[in-house]
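Quick review question:
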């Protein structure tokens, strides 16, 4: 152990790589819970939908929604999301999975809701793109 500082001084590039790899490894292990929102893969979302009857909220535009969305998903625009979600949540205690095109917008919106005290909020990692990459079905209209 006494040779470790000597190694760091003699090999700063290798030590930097070690630090980056460890940081990425830790992020990969614990990054599934970001800001209180659990990020789900397409397979995990499917299991949550099938086993716990979770609801899907698509926060893309109406046109994008009509071009293809996950079966039984509801479309809420960003402007009406808080209002519609409050009405929706009064009659529903199920988990809610948010998704958008690539997962970034839905994650931000889900984090806002968790900060406001909402529970059982999930986000589809990678958005609708990850769903289609997993060859899972979409519906139009």
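Suggested answer, residue by residue:
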């Amino acid at each position: 152990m006494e040779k470790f500082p000597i190694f760091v001084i003699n090999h700063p590039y290798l030590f930097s790589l070690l630090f980056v790899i460890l940081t990425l490894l830790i992020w990969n292990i614990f990054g599934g819970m970001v800001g209180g929102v659990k990020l789900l893969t397409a397979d995990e979302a499917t299991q949550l939908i099938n086993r716990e009857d979770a609801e899907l909220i698509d926060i893309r535009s109406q046109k994008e929604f009509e071009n293809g969305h996950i079966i039984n998903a509801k479309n809420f625009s960003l402007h009406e999301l808080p209002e519609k979600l409050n009405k929706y949540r009064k009659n529903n205690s199920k988990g809610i999975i948010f998704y958008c095109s690539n997962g970034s917008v839905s994650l931000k919106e889900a984090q806002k809701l968790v900060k406001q005290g909402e529970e059982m909020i999930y986000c589809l990692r990678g958005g609708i793109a990850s769903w289609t990459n997993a060859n899972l079905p979409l519906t139009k209209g």
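Why it works: Residues 33-133 form a domain with the Oxidized Rhodanese; domain 1 fold (CATH 3.40.250.10). The CA atoms of residues 20 and 26 lie 10 Å apart.
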